[in-house]
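Hey, can you fold this?
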Amino acid sequence: MKDPESMDVVVIGAGPAGLFAALRAGDLGARTALVTRDAFGGMAAHDGPVPVRTLAHAARLLRDARQLGRYGISVSEPVLDYSRLLTRVREVAGDVRAQAALREQIDAAGVTVHEHAGAARFVAPHTVETQGGLRLRAEKFILCSGGVSRRLPIPGFELTATHSDAWSLTAVPPSMLVVGGGATGAQVASIFTAFGTRVQLFEAGARILATEDEDVSTAVAESFRQAGMGVREAFGSIERFEKTPGGVRMVFSRDGVRDSAEAALVVVAVGWTADTSALNLAAAGVETDSRGFVRVDAQLRTSAPHIFAAGDVTGRMMLVPQALQDGFVAGSNAARTPMITVPDAVSPIGSFTDPEYAQAGLTEAKARQTHDVVVARVRFDSTTRTLIDGRTNGFCKLIVDRATRRILGCHVVGERAVDLVQTAAIAIAAGMPVDALARVPLSFPTYPGVLGRAAAIAARQLQVDVDRARLAELL
């Protein structure tokens, strides 16, 4: 057998974490190879945020088109051509891969890229081989293999689909069950509702979007219902899926009472697990945790001292921005010493549903556990820009520590929520007092101006409390 090619660092996986890890290691002068089973760009470009956001943009365009009549613009009712939309999805993914996926920088850094190499596996602690016959030996490895949709041990589960299967549809299904009310499930349900599908969203927990502020979950669920979506929270447990002439039936029960629901397509989005089955981690001495994710320390080192892991495979915060940060840290640590740690940073999170929702910092419930807080809330039906745009559904909620006046959290439901909360994340990360944010003359009328108004309300309330306390002392 041919001797393996020798490198300083081998990065397995070319998603966001892998791209940044390879670029960083290459920039530091390490002989670096980037190995990917499929195409450059990973899941984010081909089967995750980029394709899903493109579908969400199409849903937004449909919503905008249906509002044109309110502004005196006469057009015919918009009609979706799903096959043409999927062509556009592929075009966007290709453009991202070519223009925005760091390929030019990675090549300039001297990184050797092996695309379509097939699944990689360890054959020894310092050697991997791929299904395509590639063999690489390295002093250090960085695992960035990402994740896959979690499967359920339920009879008939093979009849269900994941969000990935939307790309293989030839037409919008007339009806759909979405099982799982987290970020992925909510987004799939929202997009296809906009496309005209009759959607029922099922969540086993007490509320959809369980990791969001409770007010956000309530508002999004209500908006979904107003849009015609069926939302079933705390629906019970699934017993089985079974084939029907018109699609798939889901049989479930709660408190001993059996029920069922049927649709042309069932999409299951109940979590994400590490994509490690092909890696043969035991041969390298890499341990996983009880959930199957690769165990790492603060420097992203695994149980094998020469192997690091970054991104979804670690099960930490499975989002693109955090994967990019992980990649930078892992690439730095694999290529040099002294070691650096993953920063404890504010992580804005949001989703392009209708309405959008987003958060940065602590939820109100979490903040109240350790802080005396002031909460300011601005409804979208009371702000100028939202009234102009006819997007009055939603709110901006700001949570502030009473003693320090620092912003602890921001939660938004409504138009441009994801963009708006980025400004709040910057303020939180900077430790900006709420009254300092209130004094920033944000442009008018804009969506960030809604945040400025919430800051002004919180600052005023804090000052009123101070003034009253001073008056009480004088009296």
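Oh, and this one too while you're at it.
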Amino acid sequence: MTSPTLQTADVVVLGGGPGGYVASIRAAQLGLTVACVEADTTLGGTCVTVGCIPSKALLQSSEHYEWLRLHAAEHGVKVDGASIDLPAMMARKTDVVAQNTKGIEFLFRKNKVTWAKGFGTLKPGTVVEVAAADGTVTAWQGKSVIIATGSVPVQLPFLPFDESRVLSNVGALQIPEVPKHLIVVGGGVIGLELGSVWRRLGARVTVVEYAPTILPGNDDDVVKEADRIFRKQGLEIHTGTKVTGADVRADGVTIHVEKDGASSSIEGDYVLVSVGRKPALGGVDPAALGLAMGSRGEILVDDQMRTNLPGVFAIGDVVGGKLLAHKAEDEGVIAAEVIAGKAVHMHYRTMPGVVYTWPEIATVGLTEQEVKASGRAYRVGKFPFSANGRARTMGETQGFVKFVVDKDTDEILGCHMIGPHVADNLAQVVLAMEYRGSAEDIAITVHSHPTLSETVKEAALSALGRALHM
């Protein structure tokens, strides 16, 4: 059998998602030759093609539609007969995705990163074999390899994805009609975001969550406020409810549930299963390679993203932790810089998280319940958007900003927000925490008026016991 053609690069990146493409670009910026192996017809991975970007496009479109129906009149804007053109909405989503994927291709060309098109298989000795769609096989020998193979949605054994009636995030982004009744199994980020899209467009949406609350792991106050708001918006939420079985038909789905010992069934025309994601190891055989793995199927790495194999790094969802695109990107930068000889390491203390419902939810650091459980003395500051002038002008007064700070040092331990545009507003807190800043640091910083950012200043003042506007 003829050996595949061997090419060489300083760095071979296995996967072209947020972690992989950013690692490729950063390594190239540092003067290294880079080949990025990606089998999809576009770069960007799950996030850009079937995750973050298309979901936000649909969230934005559906928000506009709901605003026209429910809130335009409050602003003196009269709109009669607003209707949905679903094909046009989906076409816009596709165009937004294309703009992003083409942008990554441009960045590859600009930075002289080679896109090795095909399915990559990691071999011993930092070699990656690439099988192209036409059957051609080539091999890349890297001085270093970065594994960035991402994650895949978890399937329920009795409810496997068919992307027709039983949907993952992929199928939920391309339903050909507004569902009459969409059942969402899982009350986490993906379930609530995509459930919100279709509810706004007219679907009845029922969320079934096994945990006692939606958004498990978030600050209790945020969860309570989110639950109240989402129910008021029209989401039907069943927490503490276990899905025990399902019947899938050509025209719909019946799921069987159990709560407090009582069994019942829920009928819908589609079901979105969003019960989590797991590391994807396509092209990586840990046993054959001797690659150290964790208990949840994740690749074990140190704080420089090194695996136990010489010259092999891993980043992004495949290493576990919080499965976030921005986490993968930062890990990609760290891996590239370590390979280039820089003294850097990864840390996660100030890793932000966002839920792009409306209102948005944004969080960083420890929840109040985590700080309380640690036994550490702390103070809480809280400020509602209903007391903010800019929020009032927008008609967006739901939610609050909450700080958890050390009682003695005033260091910010965590910040949790639910409200308008908090995804962007969180960045100032992340920066403050990166420098181990205090509530006072934010409280004495001048914030423009009138802005939503003033809620952060006021919440910091509240933690000091001296909020001005409440």
